[in-house]
Design brief:
Strand content: over 45%
Structural class: mainly beta
Shape: globular
Oligomer: single chain
Number of strands: 26
Distance between the termini: 20 Å
Order of helices and strands: EEEEEEEEEEEEEEEEEEEEEEEEEE
Radius of gyration: 18 Å
Helix content: under 10%
Number of helices: 0
Largest sheet: 6 strands, mixed
Strand order of the largest sheet: 3-2-7-6-5-4
């Protein structure tokens, strides 16, 4: 099996603190202005749509928005619990935050107003990772049920991904999800595998994780089909090509504290959340050869 092509990451900037301010889209008290500089405490979830970077910080108990220059950070919404299970943002700027303590997923508009709470007690006991596609489908991983529920744009559960949908064995623990050109990539860290699912919930393929990946944490996909998996054991990121299950270390990425999450936007910028270090690091990834 051929190895994955070398991927290099050039450091761009670090997000540790920035001037606080009113969110440019805020119109409700749930998103108050921060009067002075704000510093990240424990960034555990990140998401980007290429325009905004969203950070869920369990220390601040808030979801924050920062611009691409990371010059200002503003509170989008306060969290009712210490952490968000998952975080996603669509192309139009709607934000999705899973709240395990409530068993719900909040859909938040750009003003910080909660449009609706997605819930279904039959399939969502403790929602964690969440992603949304361009058709408005919302994919939510349930930690207790070890399954993935797919909601349509109306908020109705249409499919539950598990053994009945062709997964050979039930998920042991869904550690993260990422949408790529091939479909939804579900990281089952406990079973050391990635399961690829189509938008209807049918399994396309399953691949074991390369033995090089010791402690998988976080998964992201870029528009070229490359998959990126964080590794807490080495404080780095592994790249898996669209044509091979072999992993190669992304050169230039090093997290000394606690790698918590990954995100990649359409421009090829990689964001890495270092929870214990209180920082989000950004990198420019090399593009694949044509």
């Amino acid at each position: 099996m051929p190895g994955a092509a070398t991927v290099r990451a050039t450091p761009l900037y670090e997000i540790r603190s920035a001037m606080g301010g009113a969110d440019p889209f805020a119109s409700v008290p749930a998103a108050p202005a921060i009067p002075g500089p704000v510093s990240l405490m424990r960034p555990e979830r990140i998401a980007s749509n290429g325009m905004d970077l969203l950070i869920a910080d369990s220390g601040l108990q808030a979801v924050l928005r920062t611009d691409r220059a990371a010059s200002v950070m503003s509170v989008v919404v306060r969290l009712p619990a210490t952490r968000a299970g998952g975080l996603a943002v669509d192309r139009l700027g709607s934000i999705f935050v899973s709240v395990p303590a409530e068993g719900t997923v909040w859909q938040i508009d750009r003003t910080g107003r909660i449009d609706r709470r997605l819930q279904d007690a039959a399939v969502l006991a403790s929602p964690e990772s969440v992603v949304v596609d361009d058709q408005g489908r919302i994919f939510v991983a349930d930690a207790l049920g070890a399954r993935v529920a797919i909601f349509d744009r109306t908020g109705r559960v249409t499919t539950v991904v598990g053994p009945r949908n062709g997964v050979p064995d039930a998920f042991r623990a869904v550690s993260g999800m990422a949408l790529g050109p091939a479909g939804l990539h579900v990281l089952d860290a406990a079973a050391r595998r990635i399961v690829v699912v189509d938008p209807r919930g049918s399994v396309i393929r399953e691949a074991g994780l390369d033995p090089s990946v010791k402690a998988p944490a976080g998964i992201a996909a870029d528009r070229w089909g490359r998959i990126f998996v964080g590794d807490r054991a080495v404080g780095g990121v592994w790249a898996i090509s669209a044509t091979s299950d072999a992993a190669t270390s992304v050169e230039g990425v090093s997290v000394s504290a606690e790698l918590a999450d990954l995100a990649v936007d359409e421009s090829g910028t990689l964001y890495v959340a270092d929870a214990a270090g209180g920082v989000v690091r950004t990198f420019r990834l090399t593009q694949p050869c044509p």
